[in-house]
Amino acid sequence: DQQVKQNSPSLSVQEGRISILNCDYTNSMFDYFLWYKKYPAEGPTFLISISSIKDKNEDGRFTVFLNKSAKHLSLHIVPSQPGDSAVYFCAAHNPNYGGATNKLIFGTGTLLAVQP
Amino acid sequence: DGGITQSPKYLFRKEGQNVTLSCEQNLNHDAMYWYRQDPGQGLRLIYYSQIVNDFQKGDIAEGYSVSREKKESFPLTVTSAQKNPTAFYLCASSASGEKLFFGSGTQLSVL
């Protein structure tokens, strides 16, 4: 049972255009969402996050939108650059996971390729 | 520079062999985690530890063991009971918040 889904395994975008990466979730109890960026053979690095009480968070070229009624969030990258080419993971925080202070559930990732 | 160090970068395991993956952090974080990544899949939680001398099973703990004798260290042993060990293993840590900091990973393969 996959609680966090990234239905697009890959996305190709031209440099300078907008990249939109999507993520859907099923558990309405998730209270915090994060996006991580991962290069091959490296660990993921934190990109941007959003609390469930907000619908938008912006950091430079990166904006995350949250639609709670649709249980959907998206990451917008504008303008896209070749260095943005990586796998992007969506993650949701479950405050009710056992005794852990931090339980993140990850999606399967979307490979973004930004073409020069 | 503060961070998480995983070693080795690449590791090969023979049939019936136990291997140990190292994870050290100097971020002074209380919580540490081990995740496994398989191609086309998300990160799955193996074990986590919130404080020294305490750890809990994650979603896929079978065939793995851990210890947390020091705050800075959280080694993962892949035992011979793990029948499909080939994967990319990621160690992470966090303070009291939700954000995880990851190491650079260890690729484990079976000979």
Task: Please outline what is shown here.
Chain A is mainly β. Chain A contains no helices and eleven strands. Chain B has no helices and eleven strands.
Order of helices and strands of chain B: EEEEEEEEEEE
Give helix % range of chain A. Answer: under 10%
Mean pLDDT rating of chain A? 92
Low-confidence stretches of chain B: none
Q: Give the oligomer, counting copies of the same chain as homo and different chains as hetero.
A: heterodimer
Helicity level of chain B, as a percent range?
Answer: under 10%
Number of strands of chain A: 11
Mean of residue pLDDT values of chain B: 92
Order of helices and strands of chain A: EEEEEEEEEEE
Q: How much of the sequence of chain B is in beta strands?
A: over 45%
* Structural shape of chain A: globular
The tally of strands of chain B reads 11
What does this structure look like?
The complex is a heterodimer of chains A (116) and B (111). By secondary structure, chain A is an all-beta fold. Helices cover 0% and strands 53% of the residues of chain A. Chain A has strands at 4-5, 10-14, 19-25, 32-38, 45-51, 56-59, 62-67, 72-77, 86-93, 104-106, 110-115. In chain A, a hairpin with a 2-residue loop joins strand 6 and strand 7 (62-67). The termini of chain A are far apart. Chain B has 111 residues and is mainly beta. The mean pLDDT of chain B is 92. Chain B has no helices and eleven strands. In chain B, 0% of the residues lie in helices and 50% in strands. The chains are: A mainly beta (116), B mainly beta (111). The interface between A and B is medium-sized, with 27 and 30 residues.
List keywords for this structure.
heterodimer; A: 116 residues; mainly beta; six-stranded mixed β-sheet; five-stranded antiparallel β-sheet; globular; B: 111 residues; seven-stranded mixed β-sheet; four-stranded antiparallel β-sheet
